[in-house]
Amino acid sequence: MQEKGPGLGLKIPAPRLLLWRICYRPVSIAQRLVGVWRLVSFEVHSQGQPVRRPFGPDAIGILIYAPNGVMAGQLMRPGRATFASTTITRGSDAELVEAATGYVAYAGTYSVDDARLVVTHHVTMSLFPNLVGTDQPRHLVIEDDRLELRTPPEGGRVMILRWQR
Questions:
Q1: Half-sphere exposure (Cβ direction) of 36: Cα atoms closer than 13 Å
Q2: What CA–CA distances, in Å, run from 110 to 14, 18, 138?
């Protein structure tokens, strides 16, 4: 007995069998990025130099990709000194420098180039004002619940951030 396969336009022999069509729709990189990621490591690789960990071996971070194309990321050096005052606006110059140099934060939107394996962060707000209005491309490798982002080489230096869901 010949039956037309559901939506396939093919004749498939199916004597008294129930046929199920399995729809496989590849999942895009953007879909795989969506979620909350925890920092595993933050390293700076420079030619001819030992690997540096600017926020130490126990750096803390969170990276969020929302399905609507919004992203936010924050990195912090653990153990930063607390301020003598209870508000940031009353911090001393030294306290403010210590706080700012031990923290990276920006947010905005993102786009993904699946062919080049690049996610680009379109920065709309940042602790470092020079990033506002810039595009920050990151080469990516995503495997299961792990994500690796690499900055483009700049002056022989590449930052590598590893994340886990």
A1: 3
A2: 47, 44, 11
Closest alpha carbon to 120 in 60, 71, 155, 159: 71
- Tens digit of pLDDT per residue, the chain (165 long)? 444 445 555 555 544 444 444 555 678 899 999 999 999 999 999 999 999 999 999 999 999 999 999 999 999 999 999 999 999 999 999 999 999 999 999 999 999 999 999 999 999 999 999 999 999 999 999 999 999 999 999 999 999 999 999
- pTM for this structure? 0.82
Domains and CATH numbers, the chain: 27-164 (2.40.128.280)
What residue has token string 């420098």?
97
